[in-house]
Amino acid sequence: MARAARADFETRRGIAEKLKCSVEEVSGAVEKALAEREASFKLAKTRGERLAELEAETILRETPLGAQGVRVVARVMEGVEASFVLMLAPAIAAHEGTVVLMARRECGHVLFGQHPAVGKDMNVLLKTVMAEVGGKGGGTKDFARGGLQEPKSAARAIELARAKLGL
């Protein structure tokens, strides 16, 4: 029992040193650190979402309207964090008359989305592409996501999706 108590004290002392506080203040300091971490995480997420919105606007300005009045943003992303791609694709799809077909080369994540007014079915499109390229996924009529068995087939998946979309 004394050995366990001593080990607990040594652990608390080590934590206190790292937090630069006394042993008695460890609990409060840990709570404060966790609260700061949570606030920092929320701020980073908000900034990421805003950056994704701005990037989406830039991409949409650079993407011409198709023959049927729909912008099709078809991209294979490389060197971009997965969390950012997960924010960017919906930010693009939120714009009227827009379809986004996006894949991340490093991991093989695939995201297909549309503004509801476009009227296609992204879930069916994703399942059709995955059946041909290899992978799985699902979602809703307006937004679906999946993963390729082979990430190197990302470009092929996007090209195939674009062709099957017929826009």
Can you describe this structure in just a few lines?
With 167 residues, the protein is an alpha+beta fold. It is 54% helix and 19% strand.
What does this structure look like?
- This protein is of the alpha+beta class and 167 residues long.
- It has five helices and five strands.
- The chain has helices at 2-19, 26-62, 82-93, 122-133, 154-165, and strands at residues 71-77, 98-104, 109-114, 135-139, 143-148.
- A five-stranded mixed sheet has the order 1-2-3-5-4, sandwiched between helices.
- Strand 4 and strand 5 form a beta hairpin.
- Helix 2 (26-62) crosses helix 3.
- The mean pLDDT is 93.
Q: How much β-strand is present in the residues? A: 15-25%
The largest β sheet comes out as: 5 strands, mixed
Overall average pLDDT? 93
Instruction: Give the SSE order as H and E letters.
Output: HHEHEEHEEH
Strands of the widest sheet, in order across it, are 1-2-3-5-4
What is the 3D form?
elongated
Can you tell me the residue ranges where pLDDT is under 50 for at least 5 consecutive residues? none
Number of helices: 5
Secondary-structure content class: alpha+beta
Number of strands: 5
Distance between the termini: 73 Å
Task: Kindly state the percentage of residues in helix.
Answer: 40-55%
Report Rg: 23 Å
